[in-house]
Amino acid sequence: MSQAENIGHRSRVIRRLLYGVSLALVVVVGTGCAMTAPAQEMSDARQALQAAEQVQAPSYARAVYERAERLLRQAEEQLEAGDYSEARRLAAESRDWAIRARQDAEVR
After folding, report:
1. What is the pTM of this model?
2. CB 79 within 8 A of CB 38
3. How far is C-alpha 27 from the geometric centre of its chain's CA atoms?
């Protein structure tokens, strides 16, 4: 093998190695969020529901408020099942619906 071929071969090997390491980092970093319990998201959803309760959303924006509650219960179930990614998604959705319920109740 000539020196130029040897350098070309080494270059390809290094590129493949770097690609593999990069791919592994993406997988590790990408799943890092899913590996930790969504404590903040759950807390945010609960606080948003409490804020909605304070303006009587269960009475004035019942359907929206109940949807927020249902989503939080589903998030809690997923949390217990260990599906942190889905729990995080559901908690964020619950928070959004609770905020909407509060806003709707404040308008009425």
Report:
1. 0.70
2. yes
3. 16
Instruction: For residues 39 and 46, give the distance between their C-alpha atoms in angstroms, rounded to a whole number.
Output: 11
Element (H, E) at 83: none
CA–CA dist 7, 30 (Å, integer): 34
**Over the stretch 56-107, which tens digit does the pLDDT of each residue have?**
999 999 999 999 999 999 999 999 999 999 999 999 999 999 999 999 999 9
From the centroid of its chain, how far is CA 57?
26
**DSSP per position, 20-54:** HHHHHHHHHHHHHHHHS--HHHHHHHHHHHHHHHH
Exposure b/e, 39-48, CB count within 10 A at least 16 = b: eebbebbbeb
Distance CA 20, CA 16 (A): 6
Q: In angstroms, rounded to a whole number, what is the distance separating the alpha carbons of residues 82 and 79?
A: 5
Q: Which residue, among 86, 73, 106, 72, has the nearest Cα to 34 in the 3D structure? A: 86
Residues 6+ apart with CB under 8 A from 98: 45, 48, 49, 51, 52, 57, 65, 68, 72
